[in-house]
Structures are given as C-alpha cells and as structure tokens.
Design brief:
about 100 residues, alpha+beta, 3 helices
Length: about 100
Amino acid sequence: MYRIDPARADLAREYKARPYGPHSAELQKVLLILRWGGVRGKSVILVTKPDREWRLGKMGPKRGTPMTEYGPTYSSAKDASWACFRARWLEATGQECPVE
C-alpha cells in the first residue's frame, strides 16, 4: 500500500500552487489517501456562508454524529482547501505539513 512520505514538501507545494489540478501521479496517490483513508474524525471543509465563508470541521466518531467546527474562517475556497490539506496531512502522517 502507498504511504505518504512526510518529507515530500514538493507534493505539498504542488497542491498549494494548483489545488484543483491538474496533479502529478505522485500527488494523486497522496490525495487518494487524504480524501478516502479513514473517514471518521477526518477534517472537512464546511461552507458557513455560500460562496463567501468557509471553516474547517471534523467528522463525528460514527455515522450520524454531528461535525464540530474549528479553526479560523476563510474568505476563499482555495485557502480553506489548503488548510484542509494541511490538517489531513497531519492526520495521515502524524507530522505537520512541511509547507506553510
């Protein structure tokens, strides 16, 4: 099974530059893990005001339990997407994303 190398700052920089793609094959592998591996407790993007405001949230521990909001408010979907990528990187690797 593919594992994320937490030292691969190049992949984080690639995502930050183009969060909506196109993505390299290596980044696509990372995104599959970040998006689909272990759903419960995963960070997600919540729309708090349509097309104007986003926050991060955490999925509940089991299906049907409410999500919890956390962190700052973002005024662009791109910024929220980057924050979510960094949160999921930490969740998947146990280490902070190497790119701010």
